Amino acid sequence: MEKVNFFNSELFHKNAEKAFLIHKNKITELLPAADIQHVGSSAIPNSITKGDIDIQVRVSAEQFSKAIELLSILYERNDESVKTDTFRAFKDDTSNPPLGVQLTVIDSEFDFFWKFREVLLANNKYRDAYDNLKKEYEAKSMDAYREAKDIFFQRLMETPEFKDYDK
């Protein structure tokens, strides 16, 4: 059973930001029209993180198929993740720090990672609740943590703060 461990992002934030910029530059070379966002806990100063970074690559529906092809040159396809006509996941577990890339069509059902970041950055109560959830799952099952995290984010999507980004 894979276990999850967390770190305070203060120890990690500068390296995460540096890694994000390196990957952003690589992606921009292949997809100059893409909106590339640093998302996930490493994008939120003073939060608790697993020690990886997440990037959301937002493209138009017309660019999506080509973006899959081009990102596959840089990163491994994450076949364990959801695949739809508007979402694909990629990863690089050998990167330091490990990397997850979420490719989304702009304004599609999976175009929410950047919204989560914005809500957590602007609202201490949600950020604290998310950090507390992580503390609760420290050294426990990764699958159980992911399930609890999914529930947390489903609830976050129902908040007025999150819905403000749908306007």
Automatic annotation (TrEMBL):
Organism: Lysinibacillus xylanilyticus
Annotated Pfam families: GrpB
Gene3D superfamilies reported in the protein's UniProt record: Beta Polymerase, domain 2 (3.30.460.10)
Protein name, UniProt field: GrpB family protein
